[in-house]
Amino acid sequence: MTNDNVADAASPEPRLAALKKHPLINDKAVIVTQLVEDVYDEVESGLTFRYTGLSYEMPPRFGKTWCIRGVKHLLGHFEPSVLTFVLTARGDDKAVRTQRAFNGDLLMALGHGAAARVSAADRLAAALNFVRTARDIKAVEIGAECEQIVFFIDEGQNWTIKDWGFWKDFTNLFVHDDPIHILTVVFSQPEVFGLIKTLRAKPDIFYRFFLQHRPLQGIRHKSELGLIMKRFDSGAAMEHPEGSGRSYTEFFMPQAYTAGWRLEKELDHAWAAIKPVTGEKNRTELAMASVNQVLKIFLVSQMQADGPQYIGGDPEQWLNAAKVDIFRDLQSSL
Questions:
Q1: What is the edge-to-edge ordering of all strands in the sheet holding 148-154?
Q2: In this structure, are residues 146 and 178 in contact, taking their beta carbons and an 8 Å threshold?
Q3: Could you tell me the pTM of the whole model?
Q4: Which residues pair with 298 in a beta bridge?
Q5: What share of the chain is helix, strand, coil (3-state, %, to 5)?
Q6: Residue 269 and residue 117: Cα distance in Å, rounded?
Q7: Under a CB-based contact definition with an 8 Å cutoff, are residues 166 and 201 in contact?
Q8: What is the number of other CB atoms lying within 10 angstroms of the CB of residue 194?
Q9: pLDDT by residue (tens digit) across 24-55?
Q10: Biggest alpha carbon distance in the chain?
């Protein structure tokens, strides 16, 4: 970092102006937790051994979206030839789902408009063309054939048995018509258990997408929180702006960071503050959304104290970050 950049980073005005654009503030940060690493290893195995499906369940706000974002990020880094899509399964109050409605939802989830396409066949063709075009673009980017696609399905519990049948038919079109391997990675809330139980009577769907299913847990150990805080300190792991090499910790506390202070040094205070709050509801794990919120609140609250003499927060400051209403609301809503 140049001297000019150091000066810019230390000045509060540019930081305050850029605050709203920071990924941590707008909840777009990619945080590679132990959970993300574990799921990535399983997805990588699924690609190696040509699995058709992996399925995970987790309570809301405990880390499904964070996990998808993190695994997708790691795939982009370590498996650049793999094309990825993230689709959110939409619920529908109608008892009977139609192919046309599902194809329309699929187009919208892919980021492609469906309003102008009336028939089910038109919508299906548009979805297929959208994915194939993305595959062709990826092939040009990597200078080789794109032979694998990972579809992450978020909120998988929202799809009915009929929807999953439509999804099976959609993925079959690639298997039959293209030399391509499709891996579907499903993330659901715990109520998916009822769907999976019913799907055992539909082996063509169950064995393709839900045979390998397991629950995921939030942050259970102090060391896992420490890993997250350590990544905040690393420009190689979490940087902003992109390409700057400036870590999240350095962005919020540039002078203290230059002087040697690191967020990871706050682990004892952070864990002591966060754990009792979750314990009020007899929880044994922390929600990723809640932990992210506490770290965000702490860093923002310390910005005005930034300086070369900064030695870190005290227990009361961490308790204040952990006890703000938004954090309690997050935990109590789970």
A1: 83-88, 148-154, 181-188, 53-57, 213-215
A2: no
A3: 0.88
A4: none
A5: 55, 10, 35
A6: 56
A7: no
A8: 10
A9: 998 899 999 999 999 999 999 999 999 999 99
A10: 67
